[in-house]
Structures
1.
Amino acid sequence: MDAQYKVIDPVKFYRDHLAHKIRPDGRGLLKFRPAVINVDSIGTADGSAIVKIGNTTVVCGVKLELGVPKPEESNIGWLVPNVTLPPLCSPRFHPGPPSDEAQVASNMLAEILSNASVLDLRALCVVPERLAWAVYLDAVCLNHDGSILDACVVAAVAALRTVRLPRVEHDADKDITKVFPDERSSLPITGAPIPTTHAIFEDEVILVDPTSDEESLASGLVTITVQNDQMCSVYKPGGSPLADENMQACLSRARTRAIQMNNLIEAALAARDKEETKDQKLIS
Amino acid sequence: MDLISDQGLRLDGRRPNELRKIRCKLGVFNQPDGSAYLEQGNTKVLAAVYGPHEIRGSRTKALHDQALINCQYSMATFSTGERKRRPRGDRKSIEMSIHLRQALQAVIKTELYARSQIDIFVEVLQADGGNYCTCVNAATLALIDAGIPITEYMVACTASLANGETPLVDISHLEETSGGPNLTVAAMPMSGQIVLLEMSQRFHLDHLDKVMKHALRGCQEIKAVLDKAVRDHVASAGAACNWEFKTD
């Protein structure tokens, strides 16, 4: 009965719920969905993380490759983020070239990571003018249930934290490169930007952490990225106008969320480290 | 490289007729109509099914008496040892998609959904040999989760021959690339019928029977694991709605 009502008139369905200050999934208007992070689960990747925010699931894998730096940027490597929204994650996406939403998400991810100075590219340089690391960061959405950017950025940051660069020796005269896969060091990650998405419903009501249905009915969306208690990016692609005090309220919620997410990432990494020392103890 | 040690163990410590550890879960995501996650050893695959729904794109593709099955096989760029530049659309992926469709079309009761389309999307998150088999098995589970009627389980398994005499079942990536023959079989285990058979390399015809038997027995064992997972999933879903679930 509920399901038919939702299909026939989704706007009224939502309006009736919001009149009682509740959402169809039982959350309050300003309640976040629970988040789960798992790191280092993909063995073939050089670093990986899986993030689940409610039902939205994103897996981010990192692959490292060596390359020759460009002459005009001879002492930096590359960080190449990419977001894939395959047709399996939502009925809205069809097989073919990347959709607009995927391209926008890729761009936003790249911008947020560079704005927040998450990785100093100079640390990726092995030998200036000759050899540098390229870090390919691929975020694949497995289930799209709203707030995709939140999950992608958190997965990207967590995956980067798990990456271990192998030691590289380059003989310039003989042009021989030797990689030591067993001697690894972590990447110097200096940032942890955490985005929070809000949806504006019918120009008035603000919903935090919208699901896919809520995003499709929303009259506006705004994503605020916070790092170290500072705002580092705001993304508001048109939609309903947002009053200043509402924007301030969104920002303060984003700051609280950033602290919670950072704690979650640290806990996931700590659990992984504990597993590793346990494994090493078993081997030795 | 010796595929079998003196004690009769393979490179990963298994016996020649031992399958890799299978872990699976149905109904993992809420957007697709049916979804399943399957791990066979280190090969991790996710399958999602959408449908049956109206034909997308050109209406001319619609079949008047059966459903159109559309499969897409995709490998994540980080799923292989070397970064995969083209996750889908390259020749191998298209070939895999076609083989997937051919195998699943044999079991799906397409005559029940004329002029409709069923999409099956498979994403390989980590590839460690037997990718096609894990995809077929995951797709079967996803179809069951979606409630699409199938005549029986479609299960696939690989087999190989070590040292020219010992058959190996469920080969890993290392064993695949060591140069021995690779036999991939997709079969309906209950009726014992083979739907898809693929082989690479060569070995003497005398050994074919042995290797095929091992592969088919592997299919039977995998089917038992998948069947248990399906029954557990239905029992737990049913328990929430207070059904009575009896097994004979």
2.
Amino acid sequence: MSEEKFQVIIIGAGVAGSAAAYTLAKAGREVLVVDKGRAPGAKNMTGGRLYTYALKELMPEEWAEAPLEREVTREIMMMMTPADSVAVDSTFGSVNQQSYTVLRARLDAWLAEKAEEAGAMMVPGSTVDGLIIRDGKVAGIKTGDEELEADLVISAEGANATVAERAGLIRPVELKDVAIGVKHVIKLSEEIINERFNTVSGKGAAVMCVGECSKGVSGGAFLYTNKDSISLGLVVDSQSWKNSRLPLADIAEELKRHPALARYIEGGDLVEYSAHLIPEGGFKSLPQLYADGFLLAGDAAGFVVNRGFTVRGMDYAMLSGIAAAETANEAIEAGVYSRSILKSYESRLQQRVLKDLALFRNSHDYITRTRHVYKTYPRLAADLMRNIYNVDGSPAKLVSGLVKKTISGRVPYFDVLKDMFKGGRSL
Amino acid sequence: MGRENSKNVWVFIEVYDNKIRNVSLELLGQGRVIADQLGEKLVGVVIGDNIAGLANEVIAYGAETAIVVSGNEYKDYSTDGFANALTALVKKYAPSVLLIGATRNGKDLAPRVAGRLETGLIADCTDIEVNSEDRLVEWTKPAGNMMSTSICPDSSPQMGTVRSNVFKKPAPDYNRAGEIVAEDIGTKADDIRTKIVEIIKTVQGETVNLEEAEIIVSGGRGMKGPENFAILKELADILGGSVGASRAAVDADWMPYAHQVGQTGKTVKPKIYLACGISGAIQHLAGMSSSDLIIAINKDPEAPIFNVADFGIVGDLFEVVPLLTKEFRRIKNG
Amino acid sequence: MNILVCVKQVPDPVEIKFNSETASLIRACAANIVNPFDKYALELALQLKEKHGGEVTVLTMGPPQAVDALKECYAMGADKIVLASDSLFEGGDTLATSYALFCAIKKTGEFDLILYGKQAIDGNTAQVGPQVAERLGVAQATCATGIELADDKVLVAREQDDCQEIIEVKMPALVTVAKLAVEPRNPNIRRKIAANKIEMPVISAADLEGIDAARLGLTGSAVKVKKMFAPPVRGAGIKIENETADNAVKALVDYLSNAKAI
């Protein structure tokens, strides 16, 4: 390797960055990965679930050794009001190894190690300040008093892609295009988790909650069982958080006290608290994914689909990392790094990522613009169930009457129909 | 050194500005307890220049014997001079226990002496007791967020450095009789390889004596900047106290290290400890939790400092502190 | 000038910090780091080298994964790195540890100046440096906040309990280093890449001629830990919430006068 120039420099050692580095290094390329975290993954965050098909595609053999926490075999969908909750609890015996809970500090460190073993140079603890741009082509990175040159730079720097933004390659992230995730990791013994979730070691549950999870701030809460800890958190719409004027830490703290969730984490020790931006703009706000000498992957490119009950980002990050690496390989072989060559990145993504984003292009809008999803329907569901189960000596009522009684005055029937129609199409 | 024939409990008496440091007097108090339990004598060792008068103090504070090494070469503390004198004395008299205050100089001297004597040394003890069964001294100190108790079973003397303010200073009895032994141990000038060339007092020429302060007003990250420590100083002045700081504030260079309270700073035991904008990390608590009264002002109701505070105010210190100053000034002026 | 810096790899103190303004986090991570005071010592050594020339060697004693600490030191600018690693060295008190380090230093070379951090943040004893100085028979100065070279001596600014001292120390000398006014430098990427590739010598007990195994590790320790226990808990008292500052202050003053504290 020449001392002075790399074939590819990747910014960020998250899922996308390490997937790209791994693929490129396997192909014998000289790759440098620079990450600002002290260790790969140290600054990364996820709610906690990885859909494994992407990992299998990245490393068909080695994937089984990955530090996956528990296979998700039980899905709980919950609607909640500040005091009540209604849940649909599904156990899928027919689904095999489809998704696992993960902790990023472990997963990312492992992925980075695999990339390093394959021959990539991992440099954590360094912040990339900017890009070298020569004749309109990205030609390397700037960090501190150093400049490092490369034929190609892949930005996998995450939701707040400041390097790409500063270089004018993408427009600044707007508040409406991001959600904010907060998460607590709570330590409990493996046995207690097995007991509380009625599961066995290696298998676990995912709980997705919609409603007024915390202090009236709208959002989706989640709970994942890890091997010997629980990830509990909340994704809140940035605008609604801003309007609430509540400190994020308070919202996360309050969530832990919700009666439907508190019992799961009782007696556990808080071992980690984190907060992170999540791109939510979806298909409509996707940036230009390539420029001369430059590719964008993972969250930096906005590859996230939030359907309320499932949020997918890491699998897309992994796929986009692979696609970026394949594109880079093609460019290196051709010895050309122009936009016209890198254009093939988009068609690679089309097959794996973009079609999903296009399909769910309205889901984010649906969730954030439809206040009923967060406030009214969870309340309706909870009230209806309470009315059904209510036995207090007053005259009994038919269920159909209870439905009408519950809905009446809360929300026009027309709205209900409209939301169901829109939701049905966009989720 | 072997254990056989070693006898008596020794306290190294640290002299500063021609006075005995409080921690050494506190150690004479606890040394007395240990010596009585072992049925041995308590001995204070004073090394310095023109220090004859201090031997009587040593006896008044509970020692049977004061050993005095005096000479011009001991005017200032030096590692080489003091290690030479103290080691020579230990070799001659073979004490069973040697206590040294965990001050800067104490912690400079003790490891050097223990190394030369090939004996064990336990740092920064917060408690020392004798086990009545094996008659070994048990040395207790914080270890992370736990406490650990260690012993030194096979070598002698059993040595430890002890934090100030963990034992009570005994009441002196100037009628106590005792023996004063002058030992003539010289150290050649060439063998002392360090020399103090200058002493720089800290902030505005005043020294910080947190360890002996009765009232401490301390600030942490919540102070937001160095300039805001002025309001703590003002309150401390009215109360006749000193200003302390958490590690966060010292690391941010808002206050000099001499003000730092906590595991890597000073251990304090004032009558009143007022923590302003200090969250109360375990390392901080290790340095102040034996204060008589702990008052906390913090705007975060969940701050751990409230778990140890006798009186806590959830509020903005920038409002509360000036009001407190005003109130105390009113009381003071009658 | 030949400078040796002795460093220790320590667990990062677990701290959860959160910046609510930028919604960013500094995460708790049970990672290992170079003892912060040792990094100040290395920074000081590198500054002296830049001013006066010479060579900076970094030595650590620890398990094989302590290479990460050494690589970081190399990336910061150390010329040589040496790892002393042997299960015989493990579990020692400061007496045994200083003996092992003394033997390793003798094997590593001759030095004008040996720097240590003033204490390691895991054990906080501040004893190993002075005990190594004792075994090497060199002069020592503890808790330095600065060092200037003056012929065959160094001038050391020393952090005292309540003031600062400037002391003159004859070389060879061992100096332990406290927090400096400047933060340790961040290594650049090229140095990090070079550090990743470096081969480093590993010293084991067998490489140290004449070493007395009975003086190493747990066997060689004079101090034995007898027990560990949770510290006594001090209970919480009165807590004033949702009150005006005026009322809170009045309540506090009343409390203090009732307690006869003022």
